[in-house]
Design a protein that fits this description.
This protein is an all-alpha fold and 118 residues long. The protein contains 4 helices and no strands.
Length: 118
């Protein structure tokens, strides 16, 4: 049984040694010229002007839910469209139920005002 896993173990050992070696060489021979710009925290190109523990606006979460709705729709529609001829009427009806649930989520987003960019 060991002969089945020996190539994988050798590969992992070589990859680990090579990774550690390359990171170590970069750390040893890399230039170290820190300045204030490199050591400062980067947040959207300007200095932070408020406390990092402030509450997010609810619109942030609504946009995140909207992204998930459309992302899931696209992620499931492509394989469904490819295999529609093999899954038949059951696949068509199950996708209709899935899209109906997504439409309910979209209507919820619309009512909450997530599509209004003020």
């Amino acid at each position: 049984m060991l002969e089945n896993y020996l190539p994988i173990l050798i590969f992992l050992a070589v990859a680990t040694v090579l990774g550690v070696l390359l990171v170590s060489l970069g750390f040893i021979f890399g230039p170290r010229r820190p300045d204030s710009a490199k050591l400062s925290a980067y947040e959207c190109g300007f200095e932070a002007f408020e406390d990092s523990r402030i509450k997010f606006d609810v619109r942030y979460y609504l946009v995140a839910i909207l992204f998930i709705i459309f992302d899931l729709e696209i992620a499931f529609l492509f394989p469904w469209a490819v295999s529609l001829d093999t899954i038949g009427l059951f696949g068509l009806l199950s996708m209709a139920v899935f899209l109906a649930i997504l439409v309910v989520g979209f209507i919820f987003e619309w009512k909450k005002g997530a599509l209004e960019w003020d």
